[in-house]
Amino acid sequence: MGCDAEQFMQIIESRSSSKLLTPGPVDFSKILRALMVAISSPSAHNSQPWRLVIIDDREIMERLLGEMASEWRRDLMADGLPDWKVDVIIEESKKRTLRASIWILVCLTMEDMDRYPDERRMKYEYVMAVQSIGAFIENLLLALHAQGLGACWRCGPLFAPDAVRKVLGIPRHVEPQALVEIAHPGGIRSKTRKTLKEIAWKNRWGEPLS
Ligand SMILES: Cc1cc2nc3c(=O)[nH]c(=O)nc-3n(C[C@H](O)[C@H](O)[C@H](O)COP(=O)(O)O)c2cc1C
User: Fold this and answer.
1) Of all protein residues, whose CA lies closest to atom 18 belonging to ligand 1?
2) How far does the chain reach from its first CA to its final CA, in angstroms?
3) Cα separation of 1 and 5, whole Å?
4) 18-199: CATH, from 3.40.109.10, 2.30.30.700, 3.40.50.10490, 2.60.40.1220
């Protein structure tokens, strides 16, 4: 490999979500390069269940946010939040999301996953597809970060799949999973992590690692 292992690990460790991206045009060739890297991600049965829509059209972005906001509003109202608060939450989220120059909508398809006659195993197949999508998105984030771009993984589409399908013409069997917002880095917070001791055991659950 052409890269020092320690450098590679530092790239992984230094990635952070850009919660408040710095607006401005980005080099599209870097986005394509990151996508080329991400498609090498592992997936269950090599099914590659990811499908993508790359969005850089402001009008489509606005329309998508508008439709997703209607579904979000309904949920927030059902939670009992007052109108004014719902407006503030939605408006702040919209403003934040529009700081991105490019969005990558990551969707899931079960078309190349295995099929079982029973619900139990189908559920596990679905979980494997979701896990594969997670691997894809993480590699995408790392490849963007390695090239100096900022990004944030946003779960909004998961909560408003029909709105996303409607605006982008996505077929019914394809499930919107996440939006990766991309621009220049910004709004990075220092992150806290559980220690290895808190989350990992040796040989048997509860046995300390060292
Ligand atoms: C499945 C998933 C969904 C996420 N959804 C959102 C989101 O909707 N909005 C957001 O600001 N960050 C979202 N994030 C980013 C997390 O908040 C972030 O990764 C976490 O706080 C750790 O910070 P770091 O990425 O800087 O290490 C999501 C991350 C994952 C893995």
Assistant:
1) 17
2) 31
3) 9
4) 3.40.109.10
* Strands in 56-162 per DSSP E: 102-109, 150-154
Report how far ligand 1's centroid is from the alpha carbon of 16 (Å): 9
> How crowded is residue 192: how many other Cβ atoms within 10 Å of its Cβ?
5
Question: Separation of 19 CA from ligand 1 center, angstroms?
Answer: 9
What is the pTM for the complete model shown?
0.96
Residue spans of the domains in the chain: they are 18-199
Residue in this structure with the two tokens 């589409």, named with its chain if needed = 157
Question: What angle separates helix 119-146 from helix 5-14, to the nearest 10 degrees?
Answer: 110
Is the pLDDT assigned to residue 12 strictly greater than 70?
A: yes
Q: What is the pLDDT of residues 170-199, one digit of tens each?
A: 999 999 999 999 999 999 998 899 999 999
